[in-house]
Amino acid sequence: MKKIVVVGNGMVGYKFCEKLVTRPDRENYQIEVFGEEPSPAYDRVHLSEYFSEKGKDELLLASKSWYKDHEIKLRTSSLISEINTKEKEVITYKGEKISYDYLVLATGSSPFIPPIKGSEKAGVFVYRTTEDLDAIKTYAKKLQKSNKSKATVLGGGLLGLEAANAAKELGLETSVVEFAPRLMPRQLDEAASNTLIRKIENLGIKILINKATSEISGKEEIDALTFSDGSRHETNMLIISAGIRPRDELAKSGGLKTGERGGIFVNNKMETSATNVYAIGEAALYNNAIYGLVAPGYNMAEVAVSQICGGDKTMAAHIDMSTQLKLIGTDVASFGDPFIENEEVSAITYENKQSGIYKRINVSRDGKKLLGGILVGDASEYQNLFQIYINGMKLPENPEDLILGSRGGENSSLGSVTELLDSAQICSCEAISKGDICKPLEAGECCSMEDVVAKTKASTGCGGCKPMVTDLFNATMKSLGKEVKEVICEHFDFNRQELFDLVKINKVKDFDEALNLFGKGHGCEKCKPVLASIFASTTMETANKQVTIQDSNDKFLANIQRNGTYSIVPRIPGGEITPDKLMTIGAVAKKFDLYTKITGGQRIDLFGAELHQLPEIWKELIDAGFESGHAYGKSLRTVKSCVGSTWCRFGMHESVSFAIQIEERYRGLRSPHKLKGGVSGCIRECAEARGKDFGIIAVESGWNLYVCGNGGATPKHAILLAEGLDDETTIKYLDRFLMYYIRTAAPLMRTAPWLEKLDGGIAHLKKVVVEDSLGIAEDLEKEMQSLITNYECEWKQAIEDPEMMKRFKHFVNSDEGDDNISYVPLRDQKMPKAWT
Amino acid sequence: MQELLAQYQSVTAPEVLKWVNVGKAKDFPENGGACIKYKNKQIAVFNFARESTWYACQNLCPHKLEMVLSRGMIGDKEGIPKVACPMHKKTFSLKDGNNLNGEDYKIAVYPVKIEAENVYIGFID
What we know:
- The structure holds 2 protein chains of 2 kinds.
- Chain A folds into 6 domains: 2-108 and 247-309, FAD/NAD(P)-binding domain; 112-243, 3-Layer(bba) Sandwich (FAD/NAD(P)-binding domain), CATH 3.50.50; 320-405, FAD/NAD-linked reductase, C-terminal dimerisation domain (Enolase-like, domain 1); 416-484, Orthogonal Bundle (Arc Repressor Mutant, subunit A), CATH 1.10.10.1100; 496-555, no CATH class; 565-790, Sulfite Reductase Hemoprotein, domain 1 (2-Layer Sandwich), CATH 3.30.413.10.
- Helix content of chain A is 31%, strand content 20%.
- Chain A has 27 helices and 38 strands.
- In chain A, strand 5 and strand 6 (97-99) form a beta hairpin.
- The two termini of chain A are 44 Å apart.
- Chain B is mainly beta.
- Chain B has one domain: Rieske Iron-sulfur Protein.
- Chain B contains 1 helix and 12 strands.
- A 4-stranded antiparallel sheet of chain B has the order 2-3-4-10, with no helix packed on it.
- The radius of gyration of chain B is 13 Å and the shape is globular.
- The two termini of chain B are 21 Å apart.
- The mean pLDDT of chain B is 90.
- Chains A and B meet through helix 4, helix 17 and helix 18 of A and strand 2, strand 3, strand 6, strand 7 and strand 8 of B.
């Protein structure tokens, strides 16, 4: 057995392990990996998501148990301080010696810190590891407490712009300083850079180009940058992202050949100057260059594995540096040679300053070859262009069609994915070709998109090729005559709409019956809430009837919070409340020591109720005339209103009265996802109704009805469905619209994405709802009416039935509460104590 | 918080030193779960009525360390009985406590027996 020592557990170091363990001769090798960071390898490409959405666990490429299961000895927080190629051993910082048969250096790179005076000051950071991000976050919080908020990123490259976005997300007033006359100077030309600058500045990030920083000033903490032109730029924080330097110090001290400007010299087999020592990733100097992208790094890992195991894979002489990404919400892509223009090559450009789009393709004069290009603002053609470029495919007769689309003709100039050659590369991070994706499908080895991704790893790198992999999957399945459908989970081979119809037609009574008739196994956390929602949407049964199939919050009719306690939201229709009722809420909150906050939907949220307190609290609220607000359900939440014509001098109609009427009509209505509405008394739109699933706005001639808007993560304005309606017609159309959505949407799909997927879009929806083109309008109205008639407040139902009350107890065998809960003070109220 | 986690170690039926009566079978919802207290421990007990099988595990979710697993939904993944944490839907096997999302942490599981309509859980302390 041969021993392989890997120094470095970053993305490329991990990829090496991943490739090695899938080899049939895996058992001939013993693997030991040394990582300097405390955590196993994580996805650095998506580092900025660590701020916004993902925790550290979600960024991990593989958990510690993965290494264990594959018999790889992983040692994190372990720095190697020396290598001895004569004795074939590495020495840890503690002096421990480990011998190897093969050594792989995947030491990566470190951020380059330009020699600027003052870079040691507090408030100066780099952007590379999750620890860096944590430090930036902490410092930003500190700044904000002392009312400082200016952050600057030094470097307008890819990573610099990512860092700027992260700083902006932290609520800082952010600028980017770039030395070159344009942003992303390696990828973009001037016009592209200008387009990008306009886009980014619109989002509130300031861009300074042509600025060489000469000094970082401030006492102990940074307070400004001075530029070589003498101007000064005030800032409270600096994030340096001025390029990378390969980590070659270990190789250098070990006597390996390194480049003049850094990097461990390797040949096309990834061999360094020492026998049986390999270097891969950003530390490796190949073809006299360092490659700071993940795709070439992964490729190097694969070559090194092949070489060590006696294979013959080598690195290509030319390394493709094409990139496509979303930067601060803007699509940016650059491929091939983005700048080339000479006697043999001409550039075709399209620029639209109105919508912020710039496209450039570089085409050979004979019109046969695509050599490179740039896309900013709209990169939807990237995959096609990249395929044509990388595979040397023939161009259409008018090459400009590639970026302008075919104008006038019937067929798309770009063709479909099915026309690509089998060898066409689809996923460049993992070097997966079209054939790699299609063949296992054709051979029946893979049956689902998940299978394909698991087998090939396509789209697991930067994720840019995901739409293309999906298209290929769908096209291949179609060509095999197989229907591609999204089923709910392993227990039900149906989508939600089919299951909805099956339950309705067969008058299925409960989950067990549904499982016996149409499913298998015992169900799970996916299918149970879907069926619970279907039962509620067909018979208006409350969450008290089939408690154990309800989603976690519906089960206890409250919203679970960070420490396992619950929050309570009584319904306040239209946001109108009497002083007496307001006092009841105050008294209840005080009595039970609840944290109170006004919600975005004009209601009041009471936090920190323990499970066993819920019925007691609700008893008091119900006695005072409140009912459940269903804030815990995928159901109608609120209908927000502005004060309307009763008080407002601009109001056209009574928006509050109408909002209350509508909220009371649809209260308790369960749907595929939550539903929010709004009613505004005039076009000033103070109720923000167009950000809701349905919005009603008063105009001279009546109400305008808008549908399928969304706030949240992907904001979308609601679209006009019908205008100038009276109260009755508005409600009739709403009934039809909501019921149509409830019948046909996928689980957890809000109305906005539902409309996007709906064949025919808003035109179709108008036909169904307004013109009754499907002839189902009457059914839809009847179904809705029956749900409305059968409404019952589920909290009232629960507290009146001792059997139903049993579930609101923390312990079956004790009347105590959870002793694990503790609080800390917060602005005269309280919050859950965080785990240290 | 490590101490809190360390309190929970899986027990297998042959190891049991003490069977503790934690309530009547009818006090536990069918195809659902509830929590019981034993000494300082909170234990989630699940009644898989469809197959007349019972499982028990720590109530503490090892992901964010909240006492919530008994309030999670139960079901199976390819035949393995599981519970989904109500906080972030992390799922755990009730047979061996392994995390089924491929993450590192796992939970402790305990044997359950039903005798004369009473539910007993096996402990070694």
